[in-house]
Write the structure tokens for this entry.
Amino acid sequence: MAGDFEQFGGFTIPDWSLHWVHGVHNLYRYTGDRTRLAPCLPTVERMLRWYEPHLDEHGTLSDLPEWNLVDWSSVFTTGRTSIVSALWACGLAEYADLCDWVGNAGSAAWARERHAGVAASFENFWDPRRGLYVDGERRLAASQAANAAAIVAGLAPRERWRAIAAAMIDRSAVVTCSWIGGDGGYDIQKEEDQRRGIQRIDWDVDHEIVRAQPFFSYVVHDAVARAGQKRLVERGWALQTRPGAFTPLGAPAG
């Protein structure tokens, strides 16, 4: 996915291409227009196969090149990454559906094999103490991005979905953090730190969950809906701090 930095010979943003793959899958679900969508499928496969050289011995993605932005929120994507691994796995699962639709059994089998490889070791990112997935192996930080992606990619066991969704939208735990600013603006020191590869944790990693910023929020909405709480998205409901108690708070969101 091209970004403004690429114009000056800089980096592309590979993970944003995976959202385009999701868009193709959504068009398949809602239009079923084979004439329009079939020409997109070779591009989908090339995007997904771009990641193969960066698979580690576990079957997940590690040490990715380019700019793995994911979101403007404070998420970790360096080293072995749960977030990009899950987004890639989601793309693989959706591509397998598309291949079944057009009768491409070979590519469908490849995509499902790679998805199974991610699923086999994704448990390494699970923090049983908190009941959440962390952003990367040996990291304590947990984000809405990592946990939502784990659900929509089918990597989190279904029996965990409701509890994960509850934790992700618990108002007492979710915090807004960004590597480049705060309070809706830019922070010069944070920007300089980011250029130097410094990411300072300024939240309580043991108890707080980093909120996804608006773009990535659709993944969070999809995850909450899959966890059986579609009405929370439809009506803008939030979660009371009492565990397991979904109750409406305030007026529906716009």
In short: Confidence is low (pLDDT under 50) at residues 238-254. The CA atoms of residues 178 and 253 lie 23 Å apart. The radius of gyration is 18 Å. The longest strand covers residues 126-127.
